[in-house]
Amino acid sequence: MKKLFSILLTVALVAMLGAVVFAANPDTKFKAVNGTAVVDGIKDEIYTAADAIPVAVTEDGEMAGTAVVYAAWDDTNMYYFCEVTDPTVTPADACSSNYQSDSVEIYFSFEGYSDDITTINAGQYTIGPNFSAWAGRGGHWDNYVADAKFAFVMTGKGWDIEMSIPFGSEYKVAAGNEVPFTVAFNDDADGDAARDYQPMIATGQTSAWSVVDDNYNTLIFSDVKFEPVVEVEEAPAAEAPAAEAPAAETVAEAPAAPAPAAQTGSSLLLFIAVATAVGVPVITTAASKKRK
Ligand SMILES: [Ca+2]
Ligand SMILES: [Ca+2]
Ligand SMILES: [Ca+2]
Predict the structure, then answer these.
(1) pTM
(2) Nearest bound ligand to CA 39?
């Protein structure tokens, strides 16, 4: 009996494990919304139709801050809006233009996978609050960083940074295109201009600055567009509704009879007893109690 039970348990466990699907990072895809953003550090409405991309996974499980990124695209540019939750920000006068200060890094490849992002049309674009210039690398970065723009705004919970990166002439964007992609947040958690944590979208991505491999996620240039809610002014009703006709008959509610005092019970019984004795018909008030 014990043997049968252990066999059944094993079968059940194998069935459970088989049901667990481990998705490869490229299978986790995020939609960029189709539209044009204003690069000012303020979140455009169009981003609300894009996927929220969480940047909240680290190799060692430790982090102080996290980011959420939204992507958009039009015929000429990619746009990224990064909302960064960051309790301690590298002071402006200590900030340096590299990965050691608070910053985000956007990684993408327009030319598939390679061991070296500098040899293909791929880019690592790094920028943070108070930076005076981009940092990064890759074939795309070499050619187009001069045309990339950014703007940041300090917020109550950290900072927001927005950027536009041109597609460039080699890559033809179209709705539905998918590209390898990921994001990192370099968090200097104590303000000494040295990085403490690096949350990314998924595990295995810490070499994204060097290698475009299948640890990258996927970005879709989707045909989803932001649709503004059009407020329609309510037109006045063509005809005022007829005044409600009074009820054909109004039954005035009779005032409630005063409740008999508790002590009248014995008097009533006494009256009934006396009345019965002298032959007077007695009508009780049971019926009137049911009146509404
Ligand atoms: Ca904006
Ligand atoms: Ca920080
Ligand atoms: Ca630090």
Answers:
(1) 0.74
(2) 1
